[in-house]
Amino acid sequence: MYAEYQIVGYSNGDKMVTCSMSNLQFESTGSAYWRASQNSAQQASCSVTFDVDTPTGGWFEFRNDGGERAIYHDLGSPYDGVVSAFAASACSTTNVLQTISDLE
Fold it and tell me: What is the pLDDT of residues 8-20, one digit of tens each?
């Protein structure tokens, strides 16, 4: 199984977050846009539906709130609550400072 989690931080404090899970057969992607004024903007979470066992609606929650990790949620699975941490050294930060007209 493969996981990807990306945060783009804007100069105004907003964040665009994308996350995905995949294996050799399937891929699922999620995204969220967090305004700096939102309470949850600091954790920059992103959720994606992806079952690791029987199709019962399992999903991953990616979080970056001082303990970078992906948490699996599926009440019908023995994997419910399993946490997969990822090292901050495997992460990079991108700050987009250009205005929209600069990108056109």
Answer: 888 898 989 898 8
